[in-house]
Design goal:
213 residues; TIM Barrel; six-stranded parallel β-sheet; globular; binds 2-keto 3 deoxy 6 phospho gluconate; carbohydrate metabolism; lyase; KDPG/KHG_AS_1
């Protein structure tokens, strides 16, 4: 799957809703109810970070949830790409990008949302064919001001800013011409997961799904 085809798929997924929840899930039993709560709240695209031992099983369980489009986050190696694809991930997200990671996504047919934080990184990815990129770490790298500054020299790139995005600053990003959606962990807070408060997750997702409207 060429980078251009990967980006077309990633762009479509990023346009489903203004927010892609970034999920850190320790317990596979939480996967289905969490995904159902987020989809019910209007956020179908879900990013499960490969940062917990349960992550691949969580992806497997979430892939069964109606209406959800599940991706794997924190992809760092070709082995991560293969494991994510085998688990049923529809897309992959990385904080950055390496040639090995890109080659693996081409080989295994996993649409990648690769990360960039500077003009040169974004241009390297554009040369490869990635017109849809993650802007990471969004707030620490320069926030909406930096990303907005990239829109005029690099109008062909659309971004999903992630990292430090909150309900408060999300609207600044969503107002930019080069932003399709934002990524954020706030819609699935640790406290709600710990208590299984899925109604709270749906409430947060509903509020997030209205951002930028
Ligand atoms: O794991 C990845 O692939 C990452 O790139 C990191 C995530 O984007 C951040 O963890 C977002 O988290 P918040 O800043 O809490 O919204």
């Amino acid at each position: 799957m060429t980078p251009a085809v990967q980006s077309a798929a990633a762009l479509q997924i990023c346009r489903l809703a203004p927010v892609v929840p970034v999920l850190i899930v320790e317990d596979v039993a939480q996967a289905a109810p969490l995904a159902q709560a987020l989809v019910a709240g209007g956020l179908p695209a879900l990013e499960v970070t490969l940062r917990t031992p349960a992550a691949l099983d969580v992806i497997r369980a979430m892939a069964e949830v109606d209406g959800g489009v599940v991706g794997a986050g924190t992809l760092l190696t070709p082995a991560d790409v293969k494991a994510a694809k085998d688990a049923g991930a529809h897309f992959g997200v990385s904080p950055g990008a390496t040639q090995r990671l890109i080659d693996a996504c081409i080989e295994y047919g996993l649409p990648l949302l690769p990360g960039a934080a500077t003009a040169s990184e974004a241009m390297f990815l554009l040369e490869q064919g990635y017109v849809m990129q993650k802007f990471f770490p969004a707030e620490a790298a320069g926030g909406a001001k930096l990303l907005g500054s990239l829109a005029s020299p690099l109008p062909q790139i659309t971004f999903c800013p992630t990292g430090g995005v909150t309900p408060q600053n999300a609207t600044d990003y969503l107002a930019l011409p080069n932003v399709a959606c934002v990524g954020g962990s706030w819609v699935a807070p640790k406290s709600a997961l710990a208590t299984g408060d899925w109604a709270e997750v749906t409430r947060l997702a509903q509020a997030a799904s209205r951002l930028g409207a």
